[in-house]
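call fold(seq) -> tokens
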Amino acid sequence: MFNKRRSSDHRKIDTFIGKETSMSGSLNANGTIRIDGAFEGEIVSQGDVIIGSEARLKARVAGRNVTLGGRLEGDVRAENKLEILNKGELLGNIHTGTLAIEEGGYFTGLCNMTGSSKKDFSPSQESLGEQAADLTRDEAERDIDQVAPGEVAKKSVMPVEKVGGERR
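ret:
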């Protein structure tokens, strides 16, 4: 009877790309961006980035919080939180403070979690391409190789977040 609305639905949207729209290039904004269509390129926002369930992106994305409901091929930098919803698909690397993946959500790539630290995040100071390059497969494999058998690397411990009232 009553639909449960996500917190992202309540935010003021400053920039909107509808599901019948296709764009390419660079999109820079200070406020919240919502994309329901197709986009190829780079998205940088000082606010939140919301990628709707019908959206299809081949892009690098940076924002304060990023919510992914559609398909994204590319790297993500989320200052605070990246949330991959149950139909969301991410094929790329992640650099974020907190990561939440709902059951049914999909992610393949490398993940670097900083905690909710702003010191590593500055989309306005340097290009997203330079920031996304800081986590390479070689670095991740080198970190794993330095861990003795049976020892748990401190970098592998991630915060647990409640999703839908359940502890995951």
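The longest helix spans residues 137-145.
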